[in-house]
Amino acid sequence: MYDDTFLPYELYETDPAEVVEQVSKYGVAVLVEQVNGNDRRPLFREARNLTHEHGDRVVLRQDDDGAEGVTLKWAFGQPWMRTVAEAFFGTEPFVFNPEITLITAEPGNPNPVPQVEEGPGLTFLLYVTGVDAGNGVLRAILGSHSVGKRLPSAEPTDRLVKLNGEMGTIVVIDNDVTLRNAIVREYPRITAAARCYRG
């Protein structure tokens, strides 16, 4: 396991070149607390309201001009995200964050609740709540995206890291990296994700 005091894939700025470098090298980049204090409360309130109205899995379309999910759509429409996606896909055409999937996972479910949609591409995962061992932190096998195939998620490895993060953290994920979901044990977890893909 990696030493949690030194996390080379953690970033504190949204410099697209640095994000792409980390995703290229490790398969993930964790951008610590990118949604600032002023925007966190409305984001959390909006997510809770959407969950209350529509259930624990809500899909928002970016091209829907309705009033629902305005703050989430803003969070996933950041110019730096588009720049990262452009660098990730290079000259290939791609679809940029067409849908946002909001997932609320409550304690009591004996099975892990996935946070990232299956399929090739690049995912931006936003921690609407903080995410840690108590509410099912996502784990990744660093560098597994460059193997050419996804590793079995149960395969033992010393490259397995926990993608802990405070509320407002954004994790950028190459969808070819091997991920392991965890069971929500103590308190709820709310995350939102959008996937860019070739097309």
Structural description of this entry:
- Helix content is 23%, strand content 25%.
- Strands 1, 2, 3, 4, 5, 6, 9 and 11 form an eight-stranded mixed β-sheet that branches.
- The chain contains four helices and eleven strands.
- By secondary structure, the chain is α+β, with helices and mostly antiparallel strands.
- Helix 1 packs across helix 4.
- The protein has a single domain (10-198), classed as q2cbj1_9rhob like domain (Jelly Rolls).
- The model has no long low-confidence stretch (mean pLDDT 88).
Question: Can you identify the CATH superfamily?
Answer: q2cbj1_9rhob like domain
Mean pLDDT: 88
Assigned CATH architecture: Sandwich
CATH overall fold name: Jelly Rolls
Number of helices: 4
Distance between the first and last residues' Cα: 36 Å
Task: Quickly name the level 1 CATH class.
Answer: Mainly Beta
Integer tally of domains: 1
Q: Low-confidence spans: pLDDT under 50, at least 5 residues? A: none
- The H-and-E topology, N to C, reads as EHEHEHHEEEEEEEE
Radius of gyration: 16 Å
Determine the fraction of residues in helical runs and give it as a percent range. Answer: 10-25%
The major β-sheet equals: 8 strands, mixed
Shape: globular
Give a brief rundown of this model.
The chain is an alpha+beta fold and 199 residues long. The chain contains four helices and eleven strands.
